[in-house]
Write a structure and sequence with these properties.
four-stranded antiparallel β-sheet, two-stranded antiparallel sheet
């Protein structure tokens, strides 16, 4: 059953994580998973000592991410708070020799992200002040001969007001193919993730390297 958290930028939201982690080391299972990375990305800063379980978990995830991304970080200010941009934990996909769709069907996480984006579009009661969102994308190449360095250069070359690219990582898929997972922060009124994909990332000339792009996680900041 899916685990649901909300308003993780608030004390009440962090409290729900604190209670969930009672007697646990990670959000789900006994190893670090994508669930931990998604929750970590939504928590704006390290929980205080008033939340010992959440604070210990936050340090644990930060330590794992530091090992995966050894580059020196200077800190990124998002919505008035310091936040780091983690990349999705590596999760190799199993592939059936007779199944040529190496990337599989839409996952529950992708469906949830799509629903959250649609809900954000329909919400007309929010203040006029533009909000921000943190998005985790998966960028998939055509095959194992695709130059992944060029692919990432194409992605990061896309620039527009309200768009900030973050940390990235190559994740093995199968048959020697890797996909690019990359974090980005957007200003909601200026950047539409769907338009970004359709009008920039998967059109010419970028489609020479990029087969498709999926939104794995979408969180309001």
């Amino acid at each position: 059953m899916a685990i649901t958290f909300s308003d993780l930028h608030t004390e009440e939201g962090v409290k729900s994580v604190e209670e969930h982690l009672a007697g646990k080391t990670y959000i789900s299972g006994d190893q670090l998973s994508v669930d931990d990375v998604k929750v970590y990305a939504a928590v704006s800063e390290k929980p205080s000592d008033a939340f010992p379980n959440a604070s210990r978990w936050y340090d644990c995830v930060a330590s794992h991410l530091a090992e995966s991304f050894p580059g020196k970080a200077v800190g990124v200010s998002i919505g008035g708070s310091a936040a780091s941009a983690p990349a999705q934990a590596e999760a190799p996909a199993a592939a059936d020799d007779d199944d040529m769709d190496l990337f599989g069907d839409e996952t529950e996480e992708e469906k949830k992200a799509a629903e959250e984006r649609e809900a954000a579009k329909k919400d007309t009661k929010k203040p006029k002040e533009s909000g921000k969102s943190s998005v985790l994308m998966e960028v998939k190449p055509w095959d194992d001969e695709t130059d992944m360095k060029k692919l990432e250069e194409c992605v990061r070359a896309v620039a527009m007001p309200g768009l900030l690219w973050g940390a990235s990582k190559l994740v093995p898929v199968g048959y020697g193919i890797k996909k690019l997972t990359i974090m980005l922060t957007i200003v909601d009124d200026l950047v539409s993730p769907d338009n970004l994909i359709e009008d920039y990332l998967t059109c010419e000339p970028n489609n020479e390297y990029i087969q498709s792009v999926d939104i794995v996680a979408f969180n309001k900041i």
